[in-house]
Write a structure and sequence with these properties.
D-Maltodextrin-Binding Protein, domain 2; 319 residues; 12 strands; 12 helices; 40% helix
Length: 319
């Protein structure tokens, strides 16, 4: 077989198809149409003389041949990327690189100011481009167009690298004039009106429905476990907006603790422990395997992890 006649894009198609085991999802991640993805699968079957993916009662299932090929092709793709990436030593003091980071405004407000302080000191010519989850899809991250994503994730493609930056709990924000402030019981919490805020996924969001319990998230799932439900008056995707709205006399915002505690110096806002248990969650950083070996990327990852751990240690010392 003449290798020069092989479309190397087919190897990328194979890699995503084997990971997703679904033609529609693979097409979405690659930013192509489903017919184009189906055509790619057909060409792959012809290339390898094997069906690769077979439809079963449990969905698409990889053949034995496909499972043998999967690590080999993944290594080829990583090797190609490593070959074309500049691998010279990264000098942060001299670099003028632009790093693109997707972060929810929770991560942006609680973590990125301290990261930027370190960047200004150690890499004064580096530019930080912070994008929102709605600006970015998994294909952008997978292809290295975005350096990293910092958020809470329900799920990530298996090929992504990831690290936990910190664990965080929840706290409640309310006006210092809220009548239940000095009697903050579960009953009074449930009688109050609430601000819902979340945007954990990536891509364009959709509208919320107060009756859609499956999509309301951690706070409402915790209430459901004790057979309770709160009254949601406002839905927002921005933690900073939720903090502003909590200034209204009769509203409560239940937010990740590090986002809520940004209001500790505000005399108009009170911070309180939730009157019920809400499980902690992980703030994660994820990035493409294509950038795993890039020296500048490695430097920034280490910096972000160090800053996050320092913030966590300072919080523990304050408690």
């Amino acid at each position: 077989m003449n290798v020069s006649r092989i479309d190397l894009n087919l190897l990328v198609y194979f890699d995503v198809l084997l990971r997703e085991q679904n033609v529609t999802k693979a097409a979405h991640h690659l930013g192509i149409t489903q017919p184009a993805m189906s055509n790619g699968l057909r060409r792959l079957r012809e290339l390898f003389k094997d069906p690769l993916l077979i439809r079963t009662s449990e969905g698409m299932t990889a053949t034995e041949r496909a499972l043998e090929l999967q690590p080999l092709i993944r290594n080829v793709l990583v090797g190609v990327e490593k070959a074309i990436q500049p691998q010279g030593a990264f000098d942060p003091a001299e670099s003028d690189r632009v790093f693109r980071v997707m972060a929810s405004d929770y991560g942006e407000s609680a973590l990125m100011p301290a990261v930027l302080t370190q960047l200004r000191e150690k890499a004064p010519n580096v530019t930080l481009d912070i994008l929102t989850p709605s600006d970015v899809g998994f294909p952008d991250l997978e292809q290295g167009k975005v350096d990293m994503a910092i958020n809470r994730f329900d799920e990530l493609p298996l090929s992504f690298h990831q690290v936990t930056l910190w664990k965080d709990g929840f706290a409640c924000l309310m006006s210092s004039n809220n009548p239940i402030l000095d009697d903050f019981t579960l009953d009074n919490y449930l009688k109050a009106h609430h601000i819902w805020v979340s945007k954990t996924g990536m891509g364009v969001g959709v509208g919320m429905n107060p009756q859609d319990k499956q999509r309301l998230g951690w706070v409402d799932e915790a209430l459901a476990k004790i057979d309770k439900k709160r009254t949601i008056t406002v839905f927002t995707r921005h933690y900073q907006v939720a903090r502003l709205l909590a200034n209204q006399k009769d509203l409560i915002a239940t937010l990740p603790r590090r986002a809520a505690e940004l209001e500790l110096g505000n005399p108009q806002i009170a911070v309180r422990e939730p009157p019920f248990e809400i499980p902690a969650f992980d703030l994660m950083m994820a990035w493409s395997p294509l950038l795993q070996q890039n020296p500048g990327h490695q430097w920034l990852r280490r910096l972000i992890v160090e800053v996050a751990h320092q913030i966590g240690a300072e919080d523990e010392n304050r408690i």
